[in-house]
Design goal:
The protein is mostly beta strands. 13% of the residues lie in helices and 40% in strands.
């Protein structure tokens, strides 16, 4: 058997800081789940749900304590409201969205209109707010937040969990929503 090294195929590389469009399109090639982070918070006319949608959400950061994370842009208008409520004891509901939530994800991420119009939700006594039909629900509090360039990385501590096992996830890939398809013969 011949194990001689072969010449690598040339891959064109560009410096990451020189072309923001190339950086964004390269990052878009990494598939990730889509999570809606939501809580009922004080509003001008009484309690109201606030949501942000994150494709940067990651689980399994730690099992003891149970930690998950997401990154949020410094320009977010939803995160300051969620964080302020969390600082007074309100919990944040994380709904990892399922394959049937593609339109809901766009609506929840929009900057205009009633983000929850027509979307069935549940709110716990803690203020954590969830989207029905999500494969994963996590009731969380803020563990820590650290600056990271033009974003903040936020660790959330998980206090309770639930969801709809067997529901396929929604995946964000190449700037669009996708679903998982089982590999034939797997």
């Amino acid at each position: 058997m011949n194990h001689a090294p072969t010449a690598p195929t040339a891959v064109p590389m560009v410096p990451a800081g020189e072309d923001p469009a190339a950086l964004r399109s390269t990052f878009a090639l990494f598939p990730s789940g889509v999570a809606a982070l939501s809580a009922v918070v004080p509003g001008e006319d009484g309690p109201e749900p606030v949501v942000l949608v994150a494709s940067s959400f990651q689980v399994g950061i730690s099992l003891d304590p149970p930690l998950v994370l997401f990154a949020v842009q410094h320009t977010s208008t939803s995160w300051p409201r969620l964080k302020a409520a969390a600082e007074t004891g309100t919990r944040i509901g994380v709904s990892v969205l399922g394959e049937a939530h593609d339109l809901a994800a766009r609506q929840l991420a929009s900057r205009a209109g009633d983000r929850f119009a027509g979307i069935t939700t549940t709110t716990l006594d803690s203020g954590a707010h969830f989207v029905h039909g999500a494969p994963v629900w996590l009731e969380c509090s803020v563990h820590s937040q650290s600056p990271a360039g033009d974003h903040d990385v936020v660790l959330l501590q998980v206090h309770s969990l639930g969801g709809a096992p067997g529901t396929e996830p929604l995946v964000w890939h190449s700037s669009g929503f996708r679903t998982l398809t089982p590999k034939v013969g797997a």
